[in-house]
Specification:
Elements lengths: L2 H13 L9 E2 L19 E10 L2 H9 L2 H11 L4 E7 L1 E2 L2 H7 L9 E2 L4 H7 L3 E3 L9 H14 L3 E3 L6 E4 L4 E8 L11 H18 L2 E7 L10 H12 L4 E5 L4 E2 L2 E3 L2 E4 L1 E2 L1 E3 L9 E10 L2 E10 L8 E5 L1 H6 L5 E2 L4 E3 L2 E5 L13 E5 L8 E2 L7 E7 L9 E12 L4 E12 L2 E7 L7 E6 L6 E7 L13 E8 L4 E4 L2 H10 L2
Parallel strand pairs: 2-3, 2-16, 3-6, 4-5, 6-7, 9-10, 10-11, 11-14
Antiparallel strand pairs: 1-24, 2-17, 8-9, 12-15, 13-14, 17-18, 18-19, 18-20, 21-22, 22-23, 23-24, 25-26, 26-27, 27-28, 29-30, 30-31, 31-32
Length: about 500
């Protein structure tokens, strides 16, 4: 990059600081019984169950009014044995009158849910419920909020895209959860590959940095098609490339065969768990069954069947087909994010409490018995370690924490993603560099593997002088950390590798 442009970058960095840096509450301590505690022999098996589509309206509601006890009697012994179980709830809490007022001729059905019926999901044994599907907006924003409130009231964690990634911590493992929908709905006509993948990539990166396993719970595919369509396959490949460990899909209402994709289990569709559809294939379902032992995870599945003329399923047994397909999928736990010997973990159930932002807890190395400090809650859209070579030959390199945070800037007068660099100490975080969006407005940024201090940036195609936030043009640039900020570099080979990072 010409010298004038490098100087401009540094001037912009000096002119615009992140408005709300992640300051720390130093000296906080306490016993931590969550992820990473104990030696390997103390780690118990962790079991996760994932169900497909669940309906509490229409014909299912009729059955529930007769008696819900047979349903609980069949499902509770299986679901409640899992340490964490999730299902996809189709519909929104509200009245049938609200549905009638919002439904136009030719639209898909509207599924109102009685608030009291939500308690049934907890009684069955679910710990969390997915809210991302084409029927969650059936009753508009008010219905979506009512659904979230009803879930929380009944002790169920709502899984939503806006809160993703959400982190769940157990005795020895942290799960990073992303939930999203690619299905058309009343408020979302279609998936936008250019717009939506940028944000989703950042969410996956953050989950991969802070979790041992990254799980994607996705609403996709074509209804009643018993094999994955081209868009599902394309997205599954992209998700695995960008860090997904386990992919669990729903929406088609029929089972689609599971697959091992580069050693990662992909359940394209689990079909229905609890629904009133009559087509025979909609009466069959799967429960994705994943077990974590020590530092490895494996997945199989249980089969379910709903008799004709009934809405209530029964659990039949282990799916031999899924077991054979997924036998080669042995997942290795990702390492915790450790910077200068300080391990950073998301606070217990971070993102699942309905509050925006992320809280980081710091421990010394893998000794998680004592918390050194906690950060205040902050909005961070990407987080990773930044390694920098020593300034002289033989001098050890440095490690920093690199984040992307949305802040307003008086320079471009936008609420946009800004890069920040922090030093990590045993008593907290110290801002090292808090800059603007580098040379052009920023969409995403991440470090190039194998190259210390080389930052790959995905920029919008406009400029700070003539901003066009809606521009769909893009440019990729490479930068090198110089100790005071990032200087642009012109190296076709590095820039080409950076372009590959944003495919």
């Amino acid at each position: 990059m010409p010298a004038r442009k490098s100087v401009l970058i540094l001037l912009l960095a000096a002119a615009m600081l992140c408005l709300t840096p992640v300051q720390t509450l130093s000296g906080a301590s306490g016993e931590d019984r969550t992820a990473g505690s104990g030696s390997g022999k103390d780690k118990r098996e962790l079991r996760l169950l994932f169900a497909g589509d669940i309906l509490l309206s229409r014909g299912v509601e009729t059955w529930l009014r007769r008696s819900y006890k047979p349903l609980v009697a069949v499902l509770h012994p299986v679901i409640s044995k899992a340490d964490w179980a999730v299902g996809n709830l189709e519909g929104a809490v509200g009245s049938a009158e609200d549905c009638a007022a919002r439904t136009a001729p030719g639209q898909s059905p509207c599924f109102p849910i009685r608030s009291g019926d939500v308690a049934l999901l907890r009684e069955i044994g679910f710990k969390a419920i997915g809210m991302e599907n084409n029927h969650s907006p059936d009753l508009g924003p008010a219905g979506r909020q009512a659904t979230r409130s009803a879930l929380v009231k009944n002790g169920l964690t709502p899984l939503s895209y806006e809160s993703s990634p959400q982190f769940i911590r157990f005795d020895h493992v942290t799960l990073g959860l992303l939930s999203f929908s690619m299905a058309s709905s009343r408020v979302n006509s279609d998936w936008d590959w250019d717009r939506d993948l940028v944000e989703l990539r950042r969410k996956l990166r953050q989950a991969g940095s802070l979790a041992n396993f990254v799980i994607v719970y996705v609403h996709w595919g074509s209804e009643f098609l018993d094999w994955p369509n081209e868009r599902q396959r394309r997205m599954a490949l992209w998700l695995v490339k960008n860090g997904a460990d386990i992919i669990v899909g729903h929406h088609p209402h029929v089972v689609q065969k599971a697959e091992s994709l580069y050693g990662k289990p992909v359940f394209y569709s689990l079909g229905n768990l609890l629904f009133d559809q009559r087509y025979p294939a909609t009466k069959e379902g799967l429960l994705a069954d994943c077990r974590i032992n020590g530092d490895t995870a494996r997945c199989s599945a249980l089969t379910t069947h709903t008799p004709a003329g009934s809405a209530y399923p029964s659990v039949v047994g282990v799916s031999k087909e899924a077991e054979e397909v997924l036998t080669e999928c042995v997942l290795k736990a990702g390492r915790p994010l450790t910077v200068n010997g300080i391990t950073l973990r998301p606070e217990m159930n971070s993102g699942t409490d309905g509050l925006p932002g992320l809280v980081l807890e710091a421990q010394r190395g893998n000794n998680v018995g004592k918390t050194l400090w906690k950060s205040p809650r902050a909005t961070i859209v990407s987080i990773e370690k930044m390694r920098v070579k020593g300034s002289q030959e033989g001098q050890p390199g440095r490690e920093y924490l690199f984040t992307l945070e949305p802040h307003h800037s008086p320079l471009d007068r936008e609420e946009a993603v800004r890069p920040c660099v922090y030093e990590v100490h045993s008593d907290g975080l110290t801002p090292k560099w808090r800059g603007t969006a580098l040379a052009w407005p920023l969409k995403d940024a991440t470090f190039l593997a194998g190259e210390d201090g080389i930052l790959c940036a995905l920029h919008r195609g406009d400029s700070f002088i003539m901003p066009q936030p809606e521009s769909r043009k893009r440019r990729v640039a490479a930068y090198r950390w110089n100790g005071f900020g990032f200087s642009g570099i012109h190296d076709p080979e590095l820039i080409g590798r950076c372009e590959d990072r944003f495919e």
